[in-house]
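REQUEST
  id: r-88c1
  op: predict_structure
  target: tRNA (adenine(58)-N(1))-methyltransferase
  payload:
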Amino acid sequence: MDFAKKLTDYENVTTKSGVRILETKKDVDENDEKAKLENLLLEQANKAASDLFLGSGSRLFSTIKTLSEDSVVRDKDHLIDAKLYPTKLLPPSSIIEAGSLVVIFESFDSLNFVYATPGEVFHNKNGHFHHDDFIGKPYGCKIRSRNNRGFGFLYLLRPTPELWARSLNHRTQIVHELDSAIVIFNLNIRPNMVVCESGTGSGAMSHCIMRAIAPHGKLHTYEFNQMRAHTAKEEFKRNGVDHLVDVHWRDVCGKPSAESTSNDGRETKEGESLTFGSGGFDIGPAAADAIFLDLPEPWLAIPHAAHTIKPNGGLCSYSPCMEQTQRTCQAMRDYGFHSLKTIEVRLREHYVDEVELEKVPTFKLPRDMNVNNYVPGQSVSPVPSNNGESGPEAKDMEVDTNKKEEETKDSKEVKEPVSKKRMLGCRPFSNMRGHTAFLTFAKAGNKSYPDPLKE
Ligand SMILES: C[S@@+](CC[C@H](N)C(=O)[O-])C[C@H]1O[C@@H](n2cnc3c(N)ncnc32)[C@H](O)[C@@H]1O
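RESPONSE
  id: r-88c1
  status: 200
  body:
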């Protein structure tokens, strides 16, 4: 995924002031577009850095001395200030390469994904789509099926955490984009933070957190189901985000002696990358800037969270039921968390499309006193006077009625033909997505809590 593009660290050449200098490559292959682009980017970064930090015609060149063994005098244009550009972040590639993750847009409500692999074919009801046709094409393009006379088509989209959540293989219930956005916002998760999450489940929320903490943050994600922990680890690697995450196969609610019953029958084999642990988050005291819990019994993880979170760090628990939320709130209070708030987020989507409306009448409306405008088809009779004769009111009414007829005639003459007008309309969808979960947010207090396992 784009946000996770591995940052390229150059062999650094350090100056006395601790500034690192990066060099553009000299012998770039003319056909190597990527290397040419890297060089161009670096040149521009160097230029910007020297303009900003050194000023034009700067003396800096003479003040920077490299500490590397093979101290080289460099041209001023090839200097970069590492404080500004500590690492080089390449712009995202817009071209699909072999191995790239591609989100496949089949229709408005149907998304899928593939890792572009030469020789493989993606099948759906619209036809057969060859991965070879994807490779070398830009993201966002439309691909036609090789069968069905090319009538079938799909769009190839660049993956984002939101599109990934809509296309991934669900191994569990997942946190959808509306809730994940609110969680990231309320926990104030920012670049380079350390965040803990449990359980990992299908890894949907993990990708959202990783985007927010990139480029140098770390997500510690805890899952006690061995198969899910392993699958998530492999998936993170394949999606190129593994440098932002550590997957822990661990029960975050349990005691160290607790046995996992959910390792799906798999024993930890020698050489396996994950070993089972039990009892909370294992990254040390006051180490996490934020913690996100999506667990069936989150209240059991709160004592561990209180030990692991930094003072004033943000905690969020995502629970579908109010009873879970209530127990979690109580545990949060018991462990010094404050500023508790529970919210439920509902999405109200709208269609915005063209509608055909009758034009608003601009002609004069007829005023007919004999017709009750409020009850269609009912006439108004003149009010009789007390002695049974038609009183002055009735006479007035007659005069009025005559006037009315004239007016009606006039207005009929100016009446415009009814025409329709096309315009943009906005209507809510007839049904609204239902309840997902209650999100409880809290802030950690200043008191440090001991590791519950050692109590
Ligand atoms: C609803 S899923 C999490 C989904 C995830 N947030 C996502 O967006 O894909 C809950 C996960 O928590 C795991 N889990 C439940 N209890 C746990 C515990 N005590 N320690 C670690 N993981 C646990 C379950 O195995 C399950 O995979």
